[in-house]
């Protein structure tokens, strides 16, 4: 028996016994539920409501008339008032602001997710009621003349001042009792006021550490400030070569926004690695910003959430989930490294943080600044069509030059058998270290080796749950699956033919490169940076310190080392396998490889000494290598555009992926076939697949993929809704929809 139902937006029933109120609960219902309320409630207020045998916290919701027609949710049946359950109680917290509620509806409609699951992201904090504010006594203006003043009353009056004190503090300070204090209150000489708790978030000072900008920086920073001062939605791409001072320049936009008394949100792709960023912020604004990411402790989360809602946290730097914070007066959003695929959430609500930042900006009518040295083709296409403004920083700060990038042709310059560093790269490292400078080796692969092979029978160690090889992590003595986390000891003999000592590692991971570097560079002080060695923000901070203090001179790392670090002594970057990201036939493989390698290369030579970059590659003629060597990103992106445009690949068309998964291959195939049978047929719409996913088995589930591609003018959401509405999904079979997919695994 259900006593709640989906809301019908047309029905605002009222009766003498109460109002009909719709409440969105953080659960996967298709829309808000109806309840009965005896008090007037406004949209945004948080309420505890009964649901089955439990009580959950939900948010009073309105009909979603602000969504485009394509996005409107289906309307449920209306249940008579008499059968509705009654709302529990209202929480004494700030209501969710309208712009956040609209955003939640928008994200839900765009990603085809139940809105309650999106609301859940906005409430991922233990809300409960805010603690009752403490009350304290202050002296009133009333004269003492007509009142009898005993010695103990005298003592209390002497102890009281204009700073509020609690009853017990005041009684203690005057060596009297709380009865005396209350007596004075009755007599009108003391009054009770709220003691305001001091916020842990101190206001950043826009004039604290103002930099001296170069002429070019100054010009661009003016454009950014103007944008902020215009107080309306607009998007601007801030493109600038690595080390040109993009951060420095967008700090000026933050300062402008602070001067307007408005809040700022800065999104970084990987917030756990942001220590250098927050340090710089503190040097510029005198205080640390508020930080938001999934690893925050519960208490800090709650404090931050409330401080954002009250406008006390003025600058928040966070991961994509910070988009769902209840900003009171958001005046600017900045997305740093906008091209990063880490902005895409691949589980649960699958949304792209950069794209949704733009929606958020539009809904609060605030400008959005996208920042990158290698902007995505999506963003460049928006610049070209005139939708986004574009500002450029063309040179490195302080006269530093761009690093010179050269190719190491691995066919001609091959390392010895079983080794991976070419003689040419090794010589360069020797020279760099001899000059007292730092070098970095980059390989985007954790562990020792990506594949373990039996020399005797050809057996390959595979994950029992996934269609993937097990990766050897020699330091831990295990083979592990990077997709599902499966882990096993490295076997002593081949599990298939039982030959002993026949298992060999194939290919390198950074552990193996580290082993080679230790043998090859005997005096080097090596630091390894990967998610395995830098498990916590403090470990990362310590690694950064070691580099800054020159306690190490050879850094070996995965993509962590590519991030926006600034290491003045680092002059050489060696990319161990520049071809690594090119396989796999992913739509954006080439674009992503250019972006990643350009960013890694950009770590070299950022200060006094010029930088050098070596790309070890077997495909020197590849457009990716040519673009990197010529430092010509623009022609490369033009070629990419020319390839994607004619067949409507994004950003010139739209894409949605359907991922079907089931416990057996047969069940997955059956559902995939059924879905394909109902595939829409119309002009400008194309269906690719079904086909086994590249990761055909993941965590024991068999996966099939379909791809829906449409011309730009055709929205995929209504097509998908219509297509899938009559498909029955049985048992543990599942269909996931990924709008604007980034991963094709
Ligand atoms: N006007 C300036 N005054 C003083 N220092 C500056 C100025 N502009 C840039 N810098 C310094 O130059 C270095 C590079 O600047 P910044 O990190 O802002 O560049 P970026 O374009 O964001 O780089 P990347 O894209 O590689 O992350 C930093 O140490 C920064 O403090
Ligand atoms: Zn696995």
Automatic annotation (TrEMBL):
Zn(2+) 2 binds at residues 463, 466, 481, 484. It holds the Pfam family Helicase_C. One of its GO terms (biological process) is DNA recombination. CDD domains: DEXHc_priA (cd17929). Binds 2 zinc ions per subunit. Zn(2+) 1 binds at residues 454, 457, 494, 497. It comes from the Bacteria. Its EC number is 5.6.2.4. GO terms for cellular component: primosome complex. It is an enzyme of class 5 (isomerase). Its cofactor is Zn(2+). This is Replication restart protein PriA. It comes from Swingsia samuiensis.
């Amino acid at each position: 028996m259900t006593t709640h139902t989906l809301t019908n937006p047309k029905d605002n029933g009222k009766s003498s016994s109460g109002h009909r109120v719709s409440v969105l609960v953080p659960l996967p219902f298709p829309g808000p539920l109806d309840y009965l309320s005896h008090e007037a409630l406004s949209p945004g207020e948080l309420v505890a409501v009964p649901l089955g045998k439990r009580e959950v916290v939900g948010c009073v919701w309105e009909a979603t008339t602000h969504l485009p027609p394509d996005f409107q949710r289906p309307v449920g049946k209306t249940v008579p008032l008499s059968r509705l359950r009654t709302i529990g109680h209202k929480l004494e917290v700030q209501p969710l602001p309208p712009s956040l509620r609209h955003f939640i509806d928008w994200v839900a409609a765009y990603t085809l997710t139940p809105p309650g699951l999106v609301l859940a992201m906005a409430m991922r904090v233990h809300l409960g009621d805010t603690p009752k504010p403490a009350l304290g006594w202050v002296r009133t203006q009333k004269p003492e003349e007509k009142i009898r003043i005993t010695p103990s009353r005298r003592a209390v009056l002497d102890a009281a001042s204009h700073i509020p004190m609690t009853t017990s503090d005041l009684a203690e300070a005057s060596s009297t009792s709380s009865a005396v204090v209350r007596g004075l209150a009755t007599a009108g000489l003391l009054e009770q006021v709220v003691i305001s708790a001091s916020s842990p978030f101190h206001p950043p000072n826009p004039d604290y550490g103002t930099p001296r900008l170069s002429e070019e920086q100054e010009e661009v920073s003016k454009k950014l400030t103007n944008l902020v001062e215009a107080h309306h939605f607009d998007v601007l791409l801030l493109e600038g070569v690595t080390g040109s001072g993009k951060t420095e320049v967008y700090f000026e936009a933050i300062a402008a926004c602070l001067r307007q008394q408005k809040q700022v949100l800065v999104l970084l792709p990987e917030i756990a690695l942001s220590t250098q960023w927050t340090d710089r912020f503190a040097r510029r604004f005198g205080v640390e910003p508020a930080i938001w990411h999934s690893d925050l402790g519960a208490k800090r989360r709650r404090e931050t959430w409330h401080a954002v809602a009250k406008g006390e946290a003025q600058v928040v730097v966070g991961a994509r989930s910070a988009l769902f914070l209840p900003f009171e007066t958001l005046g600017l959003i900045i997305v740093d490294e906008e091209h990063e695929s880490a902005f895409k959430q691949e589980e649960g609500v699958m949304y792209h943080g950069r794209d949704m930042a733009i929606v958020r900006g539009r809904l609060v009518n605030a400008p959005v600044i996208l920042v990158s040295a290698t902007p995505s083709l999506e963003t460049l296409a928006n610049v070209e069509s005139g939708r986004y403004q574009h500002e450029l920083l063309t040179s490195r700060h302080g006269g530093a030059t761009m690093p010179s990038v050269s190719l190491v042709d691995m066919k001609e310059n091959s390392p010895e058998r079983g080794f991976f560093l070419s003689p040419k790269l090794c010589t360069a490292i020797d020279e760099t270290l001899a000059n007292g400078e730092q070098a970095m080796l980059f390989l985007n692969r954790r562990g020792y080796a990506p594949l373990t092979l039996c020399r005797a029978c050809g057996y390959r160690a595979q994950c029992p749950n996934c269609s993937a090889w097990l990766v050897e992590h020699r330091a831990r003595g295990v083979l592990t699956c990077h997709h599902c986390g499966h882990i096993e000891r490295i076997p002593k003999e081949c599990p298939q033919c039982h030959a002993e000592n026949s298992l060999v590692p194939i290919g390198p991971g950074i552990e193996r490169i580290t082993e080679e570097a230790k043998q090859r560079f005997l005096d080097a002080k090596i630091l390894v940076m990967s998610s395995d060695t830098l498990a916590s923000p403090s470990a990362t901070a310590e690694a950064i310190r070691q580099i800054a203090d020159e306690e190490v001179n050879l850094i070996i790392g995965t993509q962590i080392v590519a991030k926006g670090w600034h290491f003045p002594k680092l002059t050489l970057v060696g990319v161990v396998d520049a071809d690594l990201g090119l396989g796999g036939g992913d739509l954006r493989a080439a674009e992503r490889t250019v972006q990643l390698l350009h960013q890694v290369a950009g770590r070299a030579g950022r200060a006094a000494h010029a930088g050098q970059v070596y790309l070890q590659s077997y495909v020197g003629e590849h457009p990716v290598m040519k673009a990197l060597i010529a430092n010509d990103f623009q022609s490369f992106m033009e070629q990419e555009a020319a390839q994607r445009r004619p067949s409507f690949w994004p950003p010139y068309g739209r894409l949605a992926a359907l991922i079907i998964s089931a416990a057996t291959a047969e069940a997955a195939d059956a559902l995939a076939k059924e879905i394909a049978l109902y595939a829409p047929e119309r002009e400008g719409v194309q269906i690719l697949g079904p086909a086994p996913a590249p990761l055909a088995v993941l965590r024991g589930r068999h996966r099939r993929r379909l791809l829906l591609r449409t011309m730009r003018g055709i929205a995929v959401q209504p097509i998908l809704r219509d297509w899938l509405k009559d498909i029955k999904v049985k048992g543990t079979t599942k269909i996931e929809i990924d709008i604007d997919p980034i991963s094709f695994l």
